[in-house]
Protein 1
Amino acid sequence: MLDSIAQAIAGSDANEAALYLLRNVPGLPPIVQTIHILAIAALMASVAFVALRSLGLALPSQDLREMVRRLMPWTWWALPVLLLSGGLLVLARPQRYFSNPVMGWKMLFLLAALVLSVLMVQRIRRSASNGFAARPLRLKLMAAGVLFFWVLTVLAGRWIAYSDYLFVPA
């Protein structure tokens, strides 16, 4: 099924446009990759600060709900930037991504990270108390899961480029 999606994209106008842009706009490939990496940094920093604060491991003087109010927009705005920058790269080389088993893992980790991030933020916004002792175990487990799955998402993203070394036919 994924191969048929990759083949459909490979012959599409979107594929041709992405290839044209990446080949003919001077410096576009490293610019797109840099924007993608900067969006990852913004997302990871914002969500990590909130999760680490939720775990009581960082920024003890900061109000958790205030941190969510200030930092989580960076997470939510980074996501469409990542979709656009990553989408351009996927459109240009769909076979590289859709036939890559690591891409499936990345999408699974991304889904888990997004769901847990939303649940964590909702829990923080609903909480009546910001004291470390008053925070329930569930919030700490969510925060640990958020960190775990965002790190796995980033690692899987990097390993997409190296999957040829991982899955060498025997």
Protein 2
Amino acid sequence: MASKTVVDPEGRTWKVRRRWGHRSVSWRGPKGGRAADLLDGADLASVGAELPVVGVIMVAIAALLIGVMAVVFIIPALIFALELLLILTAVALGVLSRVLFRRPWTVEARVKGAEHGDEWKVTGWRASGDLVDSVAGQLQATGQIRPSVG
């Protein structure tokens, strides 16, 4: 992502960047789910009938440890992997849609701490990066913006 921070002759700090979208997106993982659902199909009572008491206790402890390990390590790792795959797919589709449909990139320049600044719509990844460089250079040299979009 093209982004530059420059200081103009008056001492103001400017951030010039290529923006992906119009609003920020908050990603939240799935919530809920029961750890007990993992053992719904387990039939440990029939296993215990053929084993001595110590064996039943050992099997119960092993099952408990496996369940705890699944809840603590395996399930969160799987959820993380699925969310990461979802995010990577969304980013890839976003870039692909911008390239295929030639949607313009938004280049913005604003003073640090300000909510709004100047912005331009530029078609093309390279052209938007060139505009970021041009605007940053002009701000650093003169403190004024005269972009040449074309």
Protein 3
Amino acid sequence: MKFRNWLTFLVLALLTVPLLAACGPKKVDVALTTYKITPDTTSANSGEITFHIHNDATDLTHEFVVFKTDIPEDQLPLNDEGVVDEETAGITLIDEAEDIEPGASTDLTVTLDPGNYVLVCNTDSDELHYQHGMHIAFTVN
């Protein structure tokens, strides 16, 4: 009878481990280059997500901003300075990593509910990065 209990425990453990791994934090690698954001995926399951951000540009400092919105990625409202208006109706600022120097990496961990998001570089120094195309849609299931 002990062998049967041990076998049952082993089977349950083997079935549970993959489920626990799937529920853990998700990691999304993101490359920032001159006027482009390239994540290794454009969707993830809801929950805690860590964006591992690397600035691959050799010439520009970037930032990485996560907005929740149903507005198309290339139509976010701009303020008078020409950057995305982070306080306007229709978008919710989730979090951001600022001043990512060329060659530097940083992590940004956020908890995201299901919905539509936009990942943006909203830097206004040097050039208006959002207006140059530094944005991409991201979906959370």
Protein 4
Amino acid sequence: MKALKTLHDLLMHELKDLYSAEKQITKALPKMIKAADNADLRQALEDHLAETDEHIRRLETIFGQLEISGRGMKCKAMEGLLEEGKSILEEEMDEDVRDAAIISAAQRVEHYEIAGYGCARTFAQRLGHSEVADLLQQTLDEEKAADDKLTQIAMDRVNAEAAVG
């Protein structure tokens, strides 16, 4: 791996990390959708899967603008978060509790992405890549909205149903 000597190098590293993370998420979300019992949760996850495909396209646009490849990196943090989510789906539990667990796992993923996109956006702004920063901000806004939607689903119904068991 190339040494990170400049903020530009760090931005490239962050973008490749996010690209790997998004690609991994597209493989994990269908399993979460299938396991979800709550219709609102399933719909939110399906919507986010479509958004994730758009996030990948945006990152590919950014790679084109910066004239770099998005390949060559595996996001180990996302791999770990998704493995934890997968293992919780393998546990025996009530459907309502499973939905709460899915939300918890999905929000861990969202929070990782929010941190990554926020940092990458700030680096891009600092380096004068305003178009890149704008694209990253769009994705950041969508990640925050997905997190808020999951919180709302949990608070409105899922957690109460899981508490009853």
